[in-house]
Amino acid sequence: MTTGQLFDQAIAVAKQQGFEVRFEHLGGSGTGYCRVGERRWLVVDVAQPMEEQLEQLAAAIASEPIPNGVRIGDDLRQMLDADA
What we know:
globular
């Protein structure tokens, strides 16, 4: 699986977990996630290298339960297991 495909899968899983995903140019300062009240936000820094974005996406996904029925490929599962 390519990095781009893995990135797309991670975004899809995060959305299924209920994250509100935004893509912002933050000058490379970093992708991050947080909870504000009942809302979960995931802000992807598009100036950051995709590999770093993906590492932070995996951390965000690992921080929340994955809903039943959400399919996760083997490559993404390995990343999530490494973050656990």
